[in-house]
Amino acid sequence: MSFNLLVFVKQVPDTQNISGDAMTPEGTVNRAALPAIFNPEDLNALELALQLKDRYNAHVTVATMGMPAAAEVLRQSLYRGADRGILVTDRALAGADTLATSYTLSCVAKKLGNIDLVLCGRQAIDGDTAQVGPQIAEKLHIPQICYVEEVNSLEPGKIVAKRAIEGGYEILSSPLPALLTVIDANDPRPINVKRMMKFKRARTAGEIDMAAKKGEIADAEACKADLKARGLLMDEYSAADINADPSRIGFPGSPTKVKQVMSVVLTAGEAKTVSADAEGIAGLMHELISDHTLG
Amino acid sequence: MANIGNVWVFIEQEQGKIAGVSLQLVSKGRELADRLGVKLEGILLGDNLSGCVDTLYHYGCDRVILAEDSRLEPFTVLPYAKVIMQLILEHKPNILLFGATLKGRELAPRIASEKLAGLTADCTDLQIDDFEDKKNNQSYTDKLMQIRPAFGGNIIATIVNTWDDPQMVTVREGVMKLGDADTSRTGELLKVDVKLDDTDTVVKVIERVRADKEVDLQGAQIIVAGGYGVGSKENFKLIYDLAEAIGGEVGASRAAVDAGWISHDHQVGQTGVTVRPRLYIACGISGSIQHTAGMSESKKIIAINTDPDAPIFSCAHYAIVGDLNQVIPQMIKAFKAKQQ
Questions:
Q1: Is the sign of the CA dihedral B66, B69, B74, B78 positive or negative?
Q2: Which of A162, A187, B96, B207 has the greatest number of beta carbons closer than 10 A?
Q3: Residue A220, domain extent
């Protein structure tokens, strides 16, 4: 018995290390100024999938939706132990909110078929919504176990997992197929150097076409055929390839619209400076007591 | 817009105890319902919950829709989603609010996906306003403005749901003010039949371990919070000493929690709780945007930091540039002296 695992991952701007020029004076985000990284909790989801592959007989497919450059997170997954990478990219997917995104990703799962377990990070650091996982589960009509810390057991037709709840944990059992969202509760393995040597040339068809356009390679089709023969051509799907309904993807498929975006301006410094000596502090305490903030 | 639906609040409870965020949302929901001229209804699921109902009237619900069944205890997402989906189809609410708790954040998307409704996560403010969708040349009146931080808290976005009702959001704990309870207020109770089948209960709870939080930061009027500048687990005693002296609770920044000096229950900020106490004393906290997002609404903020350029000072009312190891004992001493 072998299990088919599908991990959804996302390439995100590194919002946790925002530098000065990442925000424009108009309050919009300059994505180009932010490094693109593997969404941290998606690495936890991949790690959990790879642990299952180590413990059981499992095949791990990693899929992402994004720009052609997002193929990098697929390579990063192959370096760590994933068996297959799929990029879903299409201009028609632009502007997708969580509903359109989850619909699109559910189409990927349906196209692959025969999936036992879908794994996602709990949330991505660019939006922090945590909505896409549960919404994919609903679209596939399968149960979800959110905030998973570890998998206790996986057997044909059944999974038992430990997950976080407010103030504690639960151990849940669910029939398969099921979807897990995974939290930061494991240590993602580092890149395996041998695998990296093998897969660093892995490319999607789009990446090869781009390189051909830039004149970096002479014959795109020959290059694709060569990579394919060596198992290094990663799958690339368009919206049509996954049989997605055009009215349910991208901007048209997104019920939520952004009305306004503002950058966060901290309430400007009218801070009263208090000297760090006995006198200054006594004065501060006196003020707080007399205005009833304290006491 | 004529004949719009009511405002609903999903009432989260644990063993019959209503979550703080749910009552905060009832207070906010009351405001929204009054603005729209509709009723406010609390959606309460679980078992043996009749004791919760009056509290919901006291905080502003006109009606409580109560679904009781042993299969709804403890919380699991599939039967909850099924029952609420049935209620939505029958009663057609205009707005549906959830707390952005672990439960709310797994339940709301499951429902929104099935209903094909928009859902905005982790809102920090809600308003009613008109919306001009220039791209599609559509205009909408009296829509819910769903205001939330994004990009790690660096921007604030206003989101509008333009598809089917209900307009669904999850709201961060602690950001909406809890109104006063009016114990003379009463309302109407609607008990509904729970229709579930075997497919709704396929996920089984084998073991469940939980304890109430060590600390109620949201209810605290005074919070003394320590950050990485505290330096060690042992040195957190200083923070506890000051909190005890002035009658406050102890908070912490993520850096201090990640360092293992204090439990996550104490964490203030984007991945912790949002607080708005009368007094917040930030000790050795640099003031990342993720932290200040959770405390900048405090009435008075004192920041103690050795670094005069620490960002925390830009949201503080009182800035003390100095070593907390010297400053805190002096504060305790000064406070005790003034008290006498």
A1: negative
A2: B96
A3: 3-248
CA distance A6 to A180: 10
- Per the structure, the count of domains in chain A is 1
Q: What is the DSSP string of A52-101?
A: HHHHS-EEEEEEEES-GGGHHHHHHHHHHT-SEEEEE--GGGTT--HHHH
A29 touches chain B (CB under 8 A): yes
Give the pTM: 0.86
Residue A214 is assigned to a structural domain of this protein: yes
Phi, psi (5° rounding) for residue B338?
-70, -30
**Tokens 């923070």 label which residue?**
B239
* Cα distance between residue A26 and residue A29, in whole Å: 9
pLDDT score of B216 = 83
What pLDDT score was predicted for residue B1?
45
Neighbours of A281 (CB within 10 A): 25
Residue from the list B107, B163, B204 with its beta carbon closest to the beta carbon of A255 = B163
Instruction: Say whether A134 and B114 touch across the interface (CB within 8 A).
Output: no
What residues in A contact B119, CB-CB < 8 Å?
98-99, 131, 256
Q: For position A141, which CATH number holds?
A: 3.40.50.620
Regions in chain A scoring below 50 on pLDDT? 266-268
Q: What is the pLDDT of residues B323-336, one digit of tens each?
A: 999 999 999 999 98
Residue A94 lies in a domain: yes
Q: What is the ipTM of this complex?
A: 0.89
Q: Which domains does chain B have, with CATH numbers?
A: 7-201 (3.40.50.620), 222-339 (3.40.50.1220)
**A254 found inside a domain:** no
Q: What is the rounded distance in angstroms from the CA atom of residue A293 to the CA atom of residue A289?
A: 6
Q: Rg (Cα) of chain B, in Å, rounded?
A: 22
Residues of chain B contacting residue A22, judged by C-beta atoms under 8 Å apart: 154
